[in-house]
């Protein structure tokens, strides 16, 4: 799959832009703050309905405007498809596929991209939320209906938390307990599904991770990943992690029924504590992925360089997984400001590893940071305008 055309209206610092693209690598260059990242952020938005930089849509709408519009044309083999979204600075967005209205989250069914960015370092070193989002967005790319399951779980969680808050202290009534039982059922139903899917995903990602790490680093540091599942109790803790809650599980060895059984027991055991604290303490929202290098947890032991390699390897593994499982072919790879962070050897290794993806979109402030093989199509960006003619290097 590749993007053939991108049109922007009032997106970030673009009043309007119209860009035609083909397969292969494209390099967006320009000084700092010109709009390179904004451009690829718009493309990434259509795959994930979110930005890799901000959590709210408001920042995406050009300052002083009410809406931004992103329109994209995609090609896969002989087929083409038009996607567009109107992003509101407040209120609901509107999405269309082939001119027909769809729910915004359905856009993910039609377009897959994997974005590499300096922020990826937080996958290895940051808080569990970044790792959960990484896994969940990969799940939704593979199986868009899971987007609905995750959204439903988050809604149930919000309502359950609000009920638990109102039950704190001596205030809980029988009616409240009965309502909590109802939310528990929904939580177990949806949460067990999410846990099971994440475990299976880890299983599928693992072989790609070992291969991509080897290709990027040229050495085998035995990268692996496991899930720390809060619904499985307090059986294990990972060195250096503060709470140590949840058991480590490698791969999808457990069935959804077994997960539900253990989740049910754990939820019952934790109920008094949850009522005391007024918050849900067990479930996929409390789980974490643990990344290992040479048998040690990378989050607390990996060096800066090793953490970077692990983060890149995870993204490359994700791209290869999507490629191997998707009927729509390769995901579009986006590399935002990544080459500036790497030494010469990792630059050329990364260039080689991504070189055969159908379309690769790269941003860089300094042309020379990007290996020569990826510089065949250069697009210069200056103050929210795109220049595609001859580039004076
Ligand atoms: N909502 C918005 N409305 C108007 N301008 C915006 C908005 N959001 C960001 N900008 C502007 O976009 C510019 C930043 O663009 P972008 O992040 O794409 O830079 P870049 O070319 O990738 O730079 P760098 O090389 O520093 O990463 C800044 O000048 C910023 O003020």
From TrEMBL:
First-listed, main subcellular location of the protein, grouped into a coarse class: cytoplasm
Binding, ATP: 30-37
Alphabetized UniProt keyword annotations: ATP-binding, Cytoplasm, DNA damage, DNA repair, DNA replication, DNA-binding, Nucleotide-binding, SOS response
Residue intervals of the RecF/RecN/SMC N-terminal domain: 3-365
Listed name of the protein: DNA replication and repair protein RecF
Gene Ontology molecular-function annotations: ATP binding; single-stranded DNA binding
Transmembrane segments: none
InterPro entries per the UniProt record, alphabetical: DNA-binding_RecF, DNA-binding_RecF_CS, P-loop_NTPase, RecF/RecN/SMC_N, RecF_2
Organism whose genome encodes this protein: Pseudoclavibacter terrae
Name of one Pfam family that matches: SMC_N
Subcellular localization: Cytoplasm
Similarity comment: family membership: Belongs to the RecF family.
Biological role: The RecF protein is involved in DNA metabolism; it is required for DNA replication and normal SOS inducibility. RecF binds preferentially to single-stranded, linear DNA. It also seems to bind ATP.
Keyword DNA-binding applies: yes
Gene3D superfamilies: P-loop containing nucleotide triphosphate hydrolases (3.40.50.300), RecF/RecN/SMC, N-terminal domain (1.20.1050.90)
Biological process terms in GO annotation: DNA replication; DNA synthesis involved in DNA repair; double-strand break repair; SOS response
GO CC aspect terms: cytoplasm
UniProt entry tagged with the keyword Protease: no
PROSITE patterns: RECF_1, RECF_2
NCBIfam families assigned to the protein according to its UniProt record, in alphabetical order: recf (TIGR00611)
């Amino acid at each position: 799959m590749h993007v053939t055309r991108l049109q922007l209206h009032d997106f970030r610092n673009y009043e309007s832009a119209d860009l035609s693209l083909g397969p292969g690598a494209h390099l967006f260059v320009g000084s700092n703050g010109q709009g390179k990242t904004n451009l690829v952020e718009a493309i990434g938005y259509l795959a994930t309905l979110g930005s890799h930089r901000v959590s709210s849509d408001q920042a995406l709408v050009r300052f002083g405007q009410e809406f931004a519009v992103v329109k994209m044309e995609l090609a896969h083999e002989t087929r083409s498809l038009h996607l567009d979204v109107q992003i509101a600075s407040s209120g609901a967005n509107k999405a269309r596929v082939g001119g027909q209205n769809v729910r915004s989250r359905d856009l993910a069914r039609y377009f897959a991209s994997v974005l590499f960015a300096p922020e990826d370092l937080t996958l290895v070193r940051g808080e569990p939320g970044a790792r959960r989002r990484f896994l969940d967005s990969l799940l939704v790319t593979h199986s868009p209906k899971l987007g609905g399951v995750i959204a439903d779980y988050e809604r149930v969680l919000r309502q359950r938390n609000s009920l638990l808050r109102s039950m704190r202290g001596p205030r809980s009534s029988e009616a409240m307990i009965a309502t909590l039982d109802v939310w528990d059922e929904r939580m177990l139903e949806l949460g067990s599904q999410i846990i099971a899917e994440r475990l299976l995903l880890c299983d599928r990602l693992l072989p790609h991770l070992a291969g991509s790490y080897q290709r990027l680093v040229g050495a085998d540091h035995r990268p692996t990943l496991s899930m720390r599942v809060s619904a499985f109790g307090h059986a294990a803790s990972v060195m250096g992690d503060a709470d140590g809650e949840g058991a480590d599980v490698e791969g999808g060895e457990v069935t959804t029924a077994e997960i539900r059984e253990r989740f049910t027991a754990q939820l019952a055991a934790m109920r008094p504590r949850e009522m005391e604290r007024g918050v849900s303490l067990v479930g996929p929202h409390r789980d974490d992925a643990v990344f290992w290098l040479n048998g040690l947890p990378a989050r607390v032991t990996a060096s800066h360089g090793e953490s970077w390699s692990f983060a890149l390897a995870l993204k490359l593994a994700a791209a290869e997984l999507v490629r191997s499982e998707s009927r729509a072919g390769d995901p579009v790879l986006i590399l935002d400001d990544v080459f500036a962070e790497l030494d010469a050897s990792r630059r050329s290794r990364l260039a080689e590893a991504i070189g055969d993806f159908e379309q690769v979109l790269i941003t860089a402030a300094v042309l020379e940071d990007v290996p020569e093989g990826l510089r065949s199509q250069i697009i210069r960006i200056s103050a929210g305008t795109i220049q595609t003619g001859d580039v004076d290097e």
